[in-house]
Structure formats: structure tokens, C-alpha cells
Amino acid sequence: MMNVGPEKKDVYEDLNPHDTYFFKIGAHGLVCFHGRNYSIKQRLTAEQTSKLVSDSSFYRISTNCYVNLFKISEIRDNVVMFRDETHGIKTIHVPRRNLEQIKRLLPDAGSQRASEINQVV
User: Fold this and answer.
1) Bridge partners, 112 (sequence order)
2) Cβ pair 33, 40 in contact under 8 A
3) How far is Cα 9 from Cα 46, in angstroms, rounded to an integer?
4) Sorted alphabetically, which InterPro entries does this protein's record hold (predicted)?
5) How many CA atoms lie within 13 Å of 17's alpha carbon, on the beta-carbon side?
6) How many CA atoms lie less than 13 Å away from 47 in the CB half-sphere?
């Protein structure tokens, strides 16, 4: 009898953009995805990049940087925080003019989470 452990997902092979915290678009279709414990660069076609930036899950905070609204855990001052119990906190600076729009677009995961974010800011 052979015991087989659970099959682990390889983030580098099976990257799902919706699992990332934010991504940055570089030159020649190079996109850098930042997640809880990784930064992965992938070359995407113009069509793939266009589809990604038009996805309502992502909000543009600068010319080439988009944050995943569903992964935001807190907003403090001008910093958006993505919290993970195992890997800690990853942060990104957001221009002040974009903060109010991000707050309005945050997925309503319950009135408690929305009030916590508003209290912190």
C-alpha cells in the first residue's frame, strides 16, 4: 500500500491572476504578478493584457500598476495592505487621489469589514 500526499499546486505553472495581490505591466508584454510569497514575471499577448486590465477585480493605481480589490485587507494612510496568516503582510503605496475610489469599489464582504476599513482610514 502506498501513501500519497495531497497534490500541491505549483504557482509558477498554474498562475491565476485573481490569486495575486497586484500586478505591474512592463515593456513588450511583460507582466509581473505579486502574490503572498512570490513575484512572477510572464510575457502576455496584447489581448491577454487587455483582458486583464479590463477585469473589474483590478483597479489601476498608477500608469502600469493594478491592485486586486478582492485581496485588500486594510487601508492605512496611503498604503494598501494584503494580509496572509502564514506569510504576513504585503503592502503597496497608493496615491491619495485613488484611495476614495478604491474604498467605494471594495467588494462588500460584509458591513463589518467595510466599517473596519473605514475606521482604519
Assistant:
1) none
2) yes
3) 27
4) LytTR_DNA-bd_dom
5) 22
6) 0
CATH superfamily, region 17-120: LytTr DNA-binding domain (2.40.50.1020)
The model carries a pTM of 0.78
Map out the domains of the chain as residue ranges: 17-120
Confirm if 25 and 49 have CB atoms less than 8 A apart. Answer: yes
The DSSP call for residue 17 is: G
In our burial notation (b when 16+ CB lie closer than 10 A, e otherwise), range 35-61 reads bbeeeeeeebeeeebeebeeeeebbeb
Q: Which residue has the cell 515593456?
A: 27
pLDDT tens readout for residues 58-103: 999 999 999 999 999 999 989 999 988 777 889 999 998 899 899 8
Sole residue written with cell 469599489? 105
Number of other residues whose CB lies within 10 A of the CB of residue 80: 25
Whole-angstrom Cα distance, residue 81 to residue 108? 17
